[in-house]
Design a protein that fits this description.
Radius of gyration of chain A: 36 Å
Mean pLDDT of chain A: 89
Largest sheet of chain A: 6 strands, mixed
Oligomer: heterodimer
Strand content of chain A: 15-25%
Low-confidence stretches of chain B: none
Largest interface: A-B, 32 and 39 residues
Number of helices of chain B: 0
Number of strands of chain B: 10
Distance between the termini of chain A: 71 Å
Low-confidence stretches of chain A: 411-418, 815-824
Shape of chain A: elongated
Structural class of chain B: mainly beta
Distance between the termini of chain B: 11 Å
Mean pLDDT of chain B: 90
Strand content of chain B: 35-45%
Helix content of chain A: 25-40%
């Protein structure tokens, strides 16, 4: 039989032995246990209950986990009240403070932790003894001593507003003491709860008679000449006169034994996935003293999981057993208040979903945090009725209801129009242009009778556009029965009363090839309209290709000078870098240009290119000539770029040559004008490093040499995963179908309608029928129209050779010293 | 300061039809527009909203739209139709093939 020695007879040590016995360990091991405390094993969690009830420990039900008989019946030798002081890992021996030496084949360290006493004047009577009336709250002895001392006392201070401190406070309150909680952080239980939950908890505790001082450090314990406690001195709340003090400012793992014995320790004893010390395969550590993957756990659930893995491994019941860390989910009653907390207490990433409900008067506060559709955190305070379902969702990562609030409530959510109506007047609806609900309603009161009219008058929804739905809800609600359908809503451009198909038919019928011709023939009174020019120019170019009659004045400034205007009137220059692939020679040229033209900011773009920002308009032709690279079209309502990952050449996961395909797509479709910009990506495997799922067109290589094509994805003001259009067998099919989809989009999307609005509007099934299955027999025509557009492509940066108009690159702000943006 | 009076900005064909161009006259900056339908207009060159270059804006017979945030100004008098601010308008004419503006 092997000799197993367990150091520590607390919950971790005893539980581990139980697990080992349950796997037949009684036949394999002769077991010896050392326990610091002079009694059998007890349930530490019940100590606060014991304190509150003021019961005799022997009468406290369930307190003792394993009676003496259990040790005897299982043949375990228990040394209670004996402390192991050193391990000799080489000789496989442990030395105890009673002079004994015990040999082991395998050793389990379950030394737990001890209270942490912060440096504080007056806390210690001598090197080892606390001042009379000052207590830690860890052991049965601490608890019984507190109960004895509390008799006849009036006031107590608990230093530390964490879980243990609040429990101690409640226990002392049950003994008739007035309890002050002094907490150095701003929020109570700040390990588990966010700031707002801390405030709600504080309110509930104050209702229960606690006096709470947060953000207050205790600097000293005041005592009589005889040495007994008379008060605590705080940094911010003056001196509190109290008769006793409980210090609950955290715990520290007991790692001294491991340290002196030469085992790797950091915050705890460092263990591997089998809970073995990283230094010694025969020494395990479990519970609060163990540090696994950087984490030390102070709760009971992880301890149970660790004990099971350790037992599986040490008995050989499952030699492959591995501990992967614990997700923390706890449900407690803290000082009579229900608290459940799991995972994150606050959102950590910008795109974490965060649902928060607060009703401080009832002491209820609830939050859930969701990341990528998975519940990663929840806090329930005051009302824990949903804890079971949430714990299940948290542990098993099950799918969540689309309306996240249903995680917290059974009731239905208010319909959106009620939401709009109930929104506060001050609430900012359009975050780009700073328009409040009140301003929208005032605009309606002032006589606007349509959504479009209100948007035009207030500029709400004219920035990124993501608030349009809410603006529409608010205006609709404010108008009530007065709502007038806005006929202009369906127009392609505001000055011509036709939707896009009608307009295109009319343009073809009349053979209108320039914006001015369209205005003259179709606009009201034949008048041109500045706000319609860009949309018409794009449409006509798409329809006529090389036959389009280009009118420079119909172009937005970006399209006149082939660069993106910046806030100070300078421009940004982004050369084409197809697929994000460049070369040393290109980089050298870019660097030379940046120096030659004093480019103030060189920045990598999200589309894997290099952006030269702050270029003066008059320098643009020179910059292009010196770069000698094609335009990257980072300025137009057009095909922008194809982001790629490294594909198969270097990546060991790549399933398809995404880099090559991305370059081919970009070089085929570059600069293609469209209703709104199009950003693409090709990823070499479903790890999706090029973010293909959130692109207007995204391509993903999958096993078997196939490619998935996603459309309508977005990761800007709107975030949307693209819909799978189809999966194809070859790169040529990707090129064809991506082109066909883009052509259908160009012909049918409204002006500035991004694919993430267009695809849901048409429906992916409909798009599949048209683009993939060719239900309507238009595939050939779409492909031809696309080819026609591609044939008309000219690199606009060649205009440096011959300006298109007089003063095309002349500065429009002649006296302003440029650039004004700070140089980094 | 630029004194009151007539200033010659140079040849009319510096300004393409349907577009605007900016000129410096002493300390003043003026954007001169030449709509397709005819006429000539001169406005303060800088958008009062965030300093955008109005000469780079799209125009029609009646207005110019600032390229930065789409605020619109009437060519005739500089009145802003999308906000509270307006720009100054200057008398301008063609004389013998040249643009003449009066401050």
């Amino acid at each position: 039989m092997r000799k197993l020695v367990v150091v520590g007879n607390g919950m971790a040590g005893a539980r581990t032995v139980e697990e080992i016995l349950a796997r037949g360990g009684g036949e394999m091991f002769r077991i010896t246990m050392f326990g610091d405390e002079p009694h059998g094993n007890y349930n530490r969690i019940l100590l606060s209950e014991l304190l509150a009830r003021g019961a005799d420990p022997d009468e406290q039900e369930d307190l003792f986990l394993n009676p003496w008989e259990w040790y005897r019946e299982n043949g375990i030798t228990l040394h209670a009240g004996v402390r192991v002081v050193r391990i000799d890992p080489f000789a496989h021996r442990v030395y105890a403070d009673d002079g004994s030496i015990t040999r082991y084949d395998q050793l389990v360290l379950a030394t737990g932790s001890r209270p942490f006493f912060p440096p504080m004047e007056g806390i210690w009577a001598d090197d080892k003894t606390l001042t009379p009336g000052v207590f830690g709250f860890r052991t049965l002895r601490d608890t019984t001593a507190m109960m004895r001392y509390a008799g006849g006392k009036q006031r107590a201070a608990v230093i530390g507003g964490g879980l243990l401190g609040l429990e101690a406070g409640r226990g002392l309150q049950a003994h008739g003491l007035d309890v002050h909680v002094v907490h150095s952080a701003e929020g109570l239980m700040n390990q588990q709860l966010d700031a707002q939950a801390g405030r709600v908890l504080r309110h509930s505790l104050e209702q229960l008679g606690f006096t709470v001082h947060t953000g207050t450090r205790t600097t000293a314990i005041r005592r009589t000449t005889g040495g007994a406690v008379t008060g605590v001195v705080t940094a911010d709340a003056g001196t509190l006169d109290v008769d006793m003090v409980v210090i609950a400012t955290g715990i520290r793992p007991n790692i001294g034994l491991a340290m002196v014995s030469g085992l790797e320790t950091q915050r705890g004893i460092v263990v591997d996935d089998q809970l073995r010390s990283v230094d010694d395969d025969d020494i395990y550590a479990v519970g609060e003293c163990a540090q696994h993957r950087g984490k030390v756990y102070g709760l009971v659930a992880p301890l149970w999981e660790q004990a099971a893995v350790l037992a599986d491994h040490i008995t050989g019941a499952d030699p492959l057993a591995a501990y992967h860390g614990s997700q923390l989910a706890t449900k407690l009653k803290v000082a009579g208040v229900d608290v459940a907390a799991m995972g994150l207490k606050e959102p950590e990433r910008p795109d974490d979903e965060f649902v928060q409900f607060s009703e401080p008067r009832r002491g209820v506060y609830q939050t859930v945090i969701i990341r990528d559709g998975i519940l990663v955190g929840a806090t329930l305070l005051g009302d824990v009725s949903k804890v079971a379902a949430l714990t299940q969702a948290f542990d098993r990562r099950v799918p969540l209801p689309e309306e996240r609030v249903k995680l917290l409530f059974d009731i239905g959510v208010p319909p959106p129009e009620v939401g709009a109506e109930e929104l506060d007047d001050q609430a900012q609806v359009c975050n780009c242009n700073g328009v409040s609900k009140g301003q929208l309603v005032a605009c309606v009161t002032g006589g606007q009778r349509s959504v479009g009219g209100v948007m035009a008058a207030t500029r709400a929804g004219k920035g990124c556009g993501s608030c349009k739905g809410l603006v529409s809800d608010i205006v609709t609600a404010a108008l009530g029965a007065d709502l007038q359908a806005d006929p202009a809503e369906g127009y392609y451009v505001p000055c011509i009363p036709m939707d896009k198909p009608q307009l295109m038919a009319e343009i073809r019928r009349c053979g209108l090839r320039s914006p001015s011709a369209v205005f003259t023939a179709l606009a009201q009174e034949g008048a041109e309209h500045a706000g319609s020019k860009m949309a018409l120019a794009s449409l006509l170019k798409m329809m006529w290709g090389e036959q389009y009659i280009d009118e420079r004045d119909a172009r937005f400034i970006n399209d006149r000078v082939h660069a993106n205007i910046q806030r100070d009137g300078t421009f940004s220059v982004v050369p084409q870098m197809a697929g994000g692939v460049t070369s040393a020679a290109q980089l050298r040229r870019i660097a030379d240009v940046a120096e030659r033209y004093n480019v103030p900011l060189i920045k990598l773009t999200g589309g894997q290119r290099i952006d030269l920002l702050g270029v003066r308009k008059e320098d643009l032709p020179g910059v292009w000539a010196d770069l000698d690279m094609p335009s990257g079209h980072a300025y137009g309502k057009s095909f922008r770029t194809v982001k790629t990952c490294v594909g198969t050449d270097f990546c060991r996961f790549g399933l398809g040559d995404s880099t090559r395909l991305g370059i081919d797509i970009e070089q085929r479709y570059h600069g293609l004008e469209s209703p709104a910009k199009m950003k693409l990506a090709v990823s070499g495997c479903p790890r999706n490093c090029a973010e293909s799922y959130v692109k207007d067109v995204g391509v993903v290589a999958v096993e078997g040499g196939r490619w998935e094509i996603y459309v309508g994805g977005a990761a800007g003001a709107t975030v949307r995963k693209g819909d799978l259009l189809t999966t194809v067998d070859s790169r040529d099919e990707v090129l064809t179908l991506a082109g066909r989809f883009m052509q259908y989009y160009r012909e049918n999307a409204r002006w500035l309608e991004r694919s993430y609005d267009f695809v849901p509007r048409i429906g992916v099934a409909e798009l599949q029928a048209i683009v993939v299955q060719d239900r309507d027999g238009i595939a050939g025509r779409l492909d031809e129209a696309m080819q026609h557009s591609l044939d008309a492509y000219r690199d606009p940066w060649q205009e440096h050779l011959q300006p298109a108009t007089e003063g095309q690159f002349r500065d429009a702000l002649p006296l302003i010293a440029l650039p004004k943006v700070p140089v980094r | 300061m630029t004194g009151a009076g007539l200033y010659r900005l140079g040849r009319m064909d510096q300004i393409p039809v349907g577009e605007g161009r900016a000129f410096a006259v002493g300390d003043e900056q003026v954007a001169v527009f030449r709509p397709r339908g005819g006429g000539l207009h001169a406005l303060q060159a800088i958008c009062p909203h965030r300093g955008g270059p109005l000469a780079d804006g799209l125009i029609d017979a009646g207005q110019v739209v600032c390229p930065l945030h789409n605020h619109a100004f009437r060519l005739a008098d500089g009145h802003c139709t999308t906000g509270e601010w307006s720009v100054r308008a200057f008398p301008v004419a063609e004389d013998n093939g040249e643009v003449v503006v009066r401050f």
